[in-house]
Write a sequence for this structure.
């Protein structure tokens, strides 16, 4: 259990303030980008259906041209760069809308807001890098976990610190972060439990890390897809977040520790062993005797 008298040291409180504000600004930037996409859709400009990031180099050049008054979809589409040039015909169709000066005025304000937020986020990131420099080794340890990344590692340390002595076991950390669903029983029947309302900051970080891990061919990625099929995506993300916290506890508890992936086939390798144990237990229950397996004669 977390010690009631524990107060994070000054460095952690300051790092927490910086990381939380960066996350807030990042969320605001995401919302502003969504507004810009909605504005383009209202003008029948379907760039997001062709370009994965309309605020990248190619997309941004097209948006700036639209704001400047260029309306010819053929001219706009030819601003595509790199691999996007293979989609010029599709881009022409996506850019054939009714974008007007009214849309340009609003889009200009939105892009300026996005740029301002980006500059603030970059400034905060620089400050965070300076604040967390004494713990670069711990950041590198957590960065090894699939889906976490440097930003996620910084945010995890900001929330839980680097001294795992305050959490006697990994289970205590998971419980503190509210990533351990509590089973509920009613009338002798077990019901799915919820994790409860925990720290939303570390919850957001672990949620993003879980989504990132789900895209990898690792143990965590396999765990997500295996659970998502049976329990749904949200519960699978909670389970992966639980696993990430357990891994983080073990890494931060030992300076020499490094992440070692169990591999995407870990559960498949366990399945025969689990089935064997189930059958042995069933035989012992039915016979009332101890069952011992022996190698079959050649």
């Amino acid at each position: 259990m977390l010690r009631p008298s524990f107060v994070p040291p000054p460095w952690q409180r300051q790092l927490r303030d910086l990381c939380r504000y960066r996350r807030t600004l990042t969320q605001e930037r995401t919302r502003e980008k969504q507004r810009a996409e909605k504005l383009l859709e209202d003008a029948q400009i379907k760039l997001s259906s062709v370009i994965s990031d309309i605020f990248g180099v190619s997309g941004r050049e097209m948006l700036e041209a639209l704001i400047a008054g260029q309306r010819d979809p053929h001219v706009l589409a030819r601003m595509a760069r790199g691999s996007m040039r293979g989609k010029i015909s599709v881009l022409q169709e996506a850019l054939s809308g009714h974008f007007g000066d009214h849309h340009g005025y609003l889009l200009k304000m939105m892009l300026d807001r996005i740029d301002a937020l980006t500059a603030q986020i970059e400034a905060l990131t620089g400050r965070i890098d300076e604040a967390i420099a004494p713990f670069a080794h711990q950041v590198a340890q957590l960065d090894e976990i699939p889906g976490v990344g440097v930003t996620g590692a910084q945010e995890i340390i900001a929330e839980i610190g680097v001294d795992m002595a305050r959490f006697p076991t990994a289970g205590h950390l998971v419980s503190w972060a509210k990533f351990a669903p509590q089973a509920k029983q009613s009338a002798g029947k077990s019901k799915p439990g919820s994790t409860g309302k925990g720290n939303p900051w570390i919850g957001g970080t672990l949620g993003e890390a879980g989504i990132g891990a789900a895209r990898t061919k690792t143990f965590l990625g396999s765990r997500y897809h295996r659970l998502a099929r049976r329990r749904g995506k949200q519960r699978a993300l909670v389970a992966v977040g639980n696993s990430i916290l357990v891994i983080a506890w073990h890494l931060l508890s030992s300076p020499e520790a490094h992440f070692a992936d169990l591999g995407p086939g870990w559960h498949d390798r366990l399945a025969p062993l689990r089935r064997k144990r189930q059958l042995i237990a069933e035989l012992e229950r039915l016979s009332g005797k101890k069952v011992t397996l022996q190698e079959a004669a050649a």
